[in-house]
Description:
Ubiquitin-like (UB roll); 5-stranded mixed sheet
Amino acid sequence: MLKVHYFAALRETLGSTGEELNLPRADMTVAQLIEHLLEGRAESWAILNDSSQVLVAVDQTIADRTTSLAGAAEVAFFPPMTGG
C-alpha cells in the first residue's frame, strides 16, 4: 500500500489531504503514478503534471518524475517553497 499526501495550497486545489493506493504495478514511476491519479478525476488534478508548480518527494526525499516507486511507502506532492 502506498500512502500519497497532498500539502499546502495543493491540498485545497485537489480537495484532498491524501489517500492510500494499491498500485497496479510495483515498478511504476512518479510520472506513471500521476497518470494513474488523473484517471477519472476533475481537471484541477492536471496540476500534478506541472513540475514548475508541484514538487514530489518519495519517502521524504525530493524526487523527479522518473523516480521509481518500487519499494516506496510514501509519496508527497507539494508546491515549491520560497524563502523570505
